[in-house]
Design goal:
By secondary structure, the protein is mainly α. About 80% of the residues lie in helices and about 0% in strands. The chain contains 18 helices and no strands. It is globular, with a radius of gyration of 21 Å. InterPro entries: MFS (IPR011701), MFS_trans_sf (IPR036259).
Amino acid sequence: MTGYRQILAVPGMAPLLGVSFLARTAITAVVMALTMYVVLGLDMGYVAAGGAAAALTTGLALGGPLLGRVIDRRGLRTVLLATVLVQAVFWLSVPILPYGALVGAAFAAGLLMVPAQPVTRQAITAMTTAEQRRAAFALESVQGELSYMVGPAVVILCAAQVSPGVVAWGLGAAIVAGGTGIAWLNPPLRTEDETDVVGAVGRPPRREWLGVGMFAVLTMAFGTTVLLSGVDLAIVATLEEAGQVSWAAVVVAVLGVASVAGGLIYGALSRPLPTWLLLGLLGLVTIPVGLAPDWRWLCVAVVGTGFLAAPTLSAVAGAVSRLAPAGVRGEATGLQSSAQSAGFALGSPIVGVAIDVSVPAGGFAAAGLAGVAAALTGCLLSRRCPEPPDIEPATSAARRAPSKG
């Protein structure tokens, strides 16, 4: 764990991860909060709730590269303060908006969501050396897993105790606090050397960086989240058929804990593994999970999936950081977030179709095969355009050498 202590000792890293965790935990719960409000607050059905959630998710998917491009051009604080203002207005207005206006506002709120996740990834790239970066991205992936475990659960618990309108206000307050905290910290998104280079040569055209290699990584980012969101649905369907759906929360918790453990172990390894290999293994271990006969065996079966989840997400983030020039890093990480958001949005419907036409175990098979297909695609594309080595300028590495502890 020495490597992780060194990462947290980097000036500004621990506060950034703490504030980012607050924002990301709240952001992971926005779909659940909106669903609960439409169902409980407006007394409408789940179809209507799905429409509002879809509008928000669509906005999230489209907004990533847009906000990233503005960050590259205008700077971090401008974007953060603008998005914080939008989120404050939206979540304060949720309890008074009629359904039609709520759907439109949800799309706008998703489009201009506080970019906590991509900003954290950019800052990690700028604040760490090449040798520290894999462990740092592993911590970021673990942070993401913890936020997904905590955020929706807290919203569900609170919605059972207070009105969904109050939950919406609390969630909005957390997003605003997290975004304001990141703006106050104002972490660097480029090293000094990168800033000088960007100032001298300007922004590189997309054809120079958005090529085969980047498409390979984005495909694998999409495939990873298709698999993970599909697994969540398959768990519920499998346990519902067995009459044990009340144990779904326990299985999902085991999945999350295994992912956290896998991410920490992967970050401590001396050598990285190819992204396509991690995703391929993730898909292969997921395919047979549906053979588990009850919730106890399902807890055992999902350990492999969980163990490889955070390492795969960490490898994707690391690959994007290597392929993206400093001048377009915001747009590139925004594209990564969009690809992952699209995967989360499409994973459940894809796996749901597989469950409907076969058996619940077919959901795990479909999710695993989606991951394997994305891994094979990424592997083939990567062979056409190998990733550049993760090397930073010597002057930058020397300047930050004391931060290694």
